[in-house]
Design brief:
Order of helices and strands: HHHEHEHEHEHEEEHHHEEHEEEH
Shape: globular
Structural class: alpha/beta
Strand content: 15-25%
Largest sheet: 7 strands, mixed
Number of strands: 12
Helix content: 25-40%
Bound molecules: pyridoxal-5'-phosphate
Distance between the termini: 71 Å
Oligomer: single chain
Strand order of the largest sheet: 1-7-6-5-4-2-3
Number of helices: 12
């Protein structure tokens, strides 16, 4: 298939998101890849099998391929789109045999933590959980591992792992190195360029960007690994829907401008929260070692007082919406430790996904909700 020159990385990322995946147009064609709602595709003459695409669970449709070209172009590899971020992540884990050893971060997306615990129980995986910033700990944990799974910045503590040396150590130890790049986005961090074998995104989040779809994507450079991921997608039926792929493609076209604006807002809000007397800890990836390539759009902060104080603060917000998930154009906030499996987190920790609203309105909403905190009980 003819590839648009965007995939040769000769353009910047802000151009790639706009132009990649558009390589097949002829005069008179629509500007955008149409939504193709078809499970099955017409075959050629039965006497002349041509290896043509047959069935969309296995072979994909034009809008997946366009979306894959965009994210593959951003991450410098070949992308495989999935029905969700967890489908993409589990396709990577499913490359492993029973009894495999996996090194994974202590602070990691909750769904991945549960998936690993299930794999330990069902398949005898040995899962070594390593402090995200404990580089020496990673160097020890990669020995004998089949897979080193990294997530940086992490969800929800925004820990930054020193990816380059840890990936290098994983490779030296003969392990597959995978990075969940959902929080950083390919605009600030491209793990394949740092030596990783595979990078995974929940495209539900920043890449889709509008809280209106579930999708995931895995990107690798090695052909056998790409084929393994495609095979897993087909056999597990983790195929993305045609409408979701249309929306994801439309969403990723504005990733660069959305990210720039949300990151600008987040940076400003982190400083406001730092200075607020009713906030005890502000976690923001841009301040951690290794986090200076970009700051990101997610902030976690602890409200002074109890979980109930934090819940009341959320209840006073008028602009920032109380909702889980992240990476949409709208600002959202939630108290993570209320969720099953997240009880280990500080009880009053709020994770805020900063959107693209006017930053003055966000500051006013947050400070009003924090200022009017009820007087501490006597
Ligand atoms: C949300 C998320 C996932 C899972 O993605 P889904 O699209 O919800 O399946 C994986 N990793 C991280 C860091 C996430 O935030």
């Amino acid at each position: 298939m003819a590839q648009h020159p965007a995939n040769d990385r000769s353009f910047g990322t802000g151009t790639t998101v706009v132009v990649a995946g558009r390589g097949r147009e002829q005069p008179g064609d629509p500007m955008n890849v149409p939504i193709t709602l078809a499970s099955t595709l017409l075959g050629g003459h039965p006497a002349e099998p041509g290896g043509e695409p047959l069935y969309s669970r296995n072979d994909g449709l034009d809008s997946w391929v366009a979306f894959e070209e965009v994210v593959g172009g951003l991450e410098s590899g070949e992308a495989v789109a999935f029905s969700s971020g967890m489908a993409a992540a589990s396709a990577v884990f499913d490359q492993l045999p029973a009894g495999a050893t996996i090194a994974a971060p202590a602070d990691v997306y909750g769904g991945v933590a549960t998936f690993l615990a299930d794999g330990a129980a069902r398949l005898g995986w040995e899962v070594r959980r390593v402090g995200n910033t404990d580089t020496a700990g990673w160097f020890a944990a990669v020995e004998g591992a089949a897979l080193v799974w990294l997530e940086s910045p992490s969800n929800p503590l925004l820990e930054v792992t020193e990816l380059e040396p840890v990936i290098a150590a994983a490779k030296r130890a003969g392990a597959l190195a995978a990075v969940d790049n959902t929080f950083a986005s390919p605009l600030v961090q491209r793990p394949l360029e740092l030596g990783a074998d595979v990078v995974v995104h929940s495209a539900t989040k920043l890449i889709g960007g509008h809280s209106d779809l579930l999708a995931g994507i895995a990107v690798a450079a090695d052909e056998a690994l790409v084929a393994g991921l495609q095979r897993q997608r087909a056999l597990h039926g983790a195929t993305p829907g045609a409408l979701e792929m249309f929306l994801a493609l439309r969403g990723v076209r504005t990733l660069a401008v959305r990210f720039e604006r949300a990151q600008h807002n987040a940076r400003h809000l982190a400083a406001v929260l730092d200075a607020h007397p009713n906030v005890t800890t502000v976690r923001y990836a841009g301040r951690r070692p290794g986090g200076d390539a970009g700051y990101g759009t997610i902030i976690s902060f602890d409200v002074e007082g109890t979980a109930a104080d934090a819940d009341e603060m959320i209840g006073r917000l008028e602009l920032v919406r109380h909702a889980t998930s992240l990476g949409g154009v709208e600002s959202t906030i939630e108290r993570r430790s209320r969720l099953a499996g997240q009880e280990h987190l500080p009880p009053s920790l709020l994770r805020m996904s900063v959107g693209i609203e006017d930053v003055g309105d966000l500051v006013a909403d947050l400070t009003a909700a924090l200022d009017s905190r009820a007087a501490p009980a006597r």
